[in-house]
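Risk register update: the risk of archive-format incompatibility is retired. Evidence:
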Amino acid sequence: MSGPTSMPDHTAESGMPHSRSTNDKLVYMTNQIGTFFLSLDTETASAKIADHIRKFWDPRMREAILAHLDKGGAGLDPASRRAIELLREPAKG
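Archived output:
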C-alpha cells in the first residue's frame, strides 16, 4: 500500500534498488530512527541513532550513508547528520 510517507519502490531488473533511491531510503530510515529520540537533546539523540545504526545496519548500508554525508548529506535532519558523523568515531564502551 502506498501513502504519503511510503518510499517509492524503484528497483532494477536485479531486484536491487537504484543508487539514488537507496540513498533516499537510507536518509529516510536514519531520520525515522531520529524521530524516536526527538525528546532528547541533539547530542544524546545523535549518539543513540549512531548506536542503533552500528548495531543493526549492514556494513554496506553504513558505508553508503557515510558516502552520502560526504556528498553533502542532503535530507538528513541535524541529529541524524551528527549521528552519521559519529559513525566515523570509535564506538564507546
